[in-house]
Structure formats: structure tokens, C-alpha cells
Amino acid sequence: MRSFGQRVELLRVIAHPVRVRILEELKKGVKCVSDFGELIEINQPNLSQHLASLRNRGIIDYYMDGRLRCYFLVDPIIPDLLELLEKDYCESLPAPECCPVTKKGKYPGMRKH
Q1: Which of 12, 15, 52, 68 could bond to 32 as cystine, CB 3.0-4.6 Å?
Q2: Residue 16 CB neighbour total at 10 angstroms
Q3: Domain limits of the chain?
Q4: DSSP state string for 53-106
Q5: Given a cut of 70, is residue 110 above it in pLDDT?
Q6: Gap between the Cα atoms of 77 and 82, Å rounded
Q7: What is the pTM for the complete model shown?
Q8: What gap in Å lies between CA 70 and CA 32, rounded to an integer?
Q9: Contact by Cβ (8 Å): 33, 27
Q10: Which has the closest alpha carbon to 22: 45, 2, 42, 8?
Q11: Which residues pair with 61 in a beta bridge?
């Protein structure tokens, strides 16, 4: 079981648009570095930094195929997290009727965000 700190660290590491895109591609299967170059429009050094960050946290790993590094998912929670992020929710959660402690007050309705 992951500690609270480990869960927060996992979310912190993947909370970058490029890393989410990398993980989405790896969810589909193994990808070599050259594959990412075609799918994600960033320069090679930047891509390598993102891959290294994910690898250092145990989220992904790679194997060598000749001179190519082929990356794959390791952490089993990643497909579930990505699927959850892709869900489309039609409604918000219902507002509380009143304060659960004092049993007073009433939610006034929609607020400006």
C-alpha cells in the first residue's frame, strides 16, 4: 500500500502535460524514443528529461533493442488514473442540505468561480 507521501509524489510527478501525454502513449503499448518524437512535439533533450523523471520514480522503465531504448509502463495504477482523467462527468456532486455539525445554514446555490 502506498503511503500518503508516495501518493502525493506520484501525482506531483505525473502532473505535467508532456508526462501525461507520454503515459497516454505508453498505455497503448511499448514505445521507442523515436516514436515519441513523432507523437510529442518537444526536443530530444526535453523528452529525455521527462522520461528520466518518470523512470526514476518507478512509473516507467525501458529495455534496449539494439541502440533503441523502448519504454513501457511499470506502475499498475497509471492506466487507471489515465482512464479516470478521461471520464466526462455531466453533473457536479450535490450540495449539502446544511452543516453536518450544527445542522444550521443552507447552501445558497451557485457561486461565481
Answers
A1: 68
A2: 13
A3: 4-86
A4: HHHHTTSEEEEEETTEEEEEE--THHHHHHHHHH----SPPPPPSS-TTT----
A5: no
A6: 9
A7: 0.82
A8: 4
A9: no
A10: 42
A11: 72
Identify the pLDDT of residue 111: 65
Judged by DSSP in three states, 108 sits in coil
Summarised one tens digit per residue, pLDDT across range 60-96 is: 999 999 999 999 999 999 999 999 999 998 888 888 8
The C-alpha cell 519504454 sits at 71
CB 14 within 8 A of CB 59: yes
C-alpha cell at 18: 508532456
Q: Is 13 exposed, middle or buried, given 0-12, 13-18 or 19+ CB atoms closer than 10 A?
A: middle
Is the domain spanning 4-86 CATH 3.90.550.10? The answer is: no
Which three three-digit cell numbers place residue 58? 518507478
State whether residue 31 is helix, strand or coil: strand
> To which residue does cell 522520461 refer?
51
Per residue in 14-59, pLDDT (tens digit) is 999 999 999 999 999 999 988 988 888 888 899 999 999 999 999 9
